[in-house]
Design a protein that fits this description.
mainly alpha; 1 helix; rod-shaped
Amino acid sequence: MKNNPYFKEVELNVNVASVNCLKMYQVMSL
């Protein structure tokens, strides 16, 4: 189940989204 490429793709997207949120948060707090 964990080796399913679909789940890897989702995990990657979640990581990218959280990084983007972090960047937005840093920009907003400037």
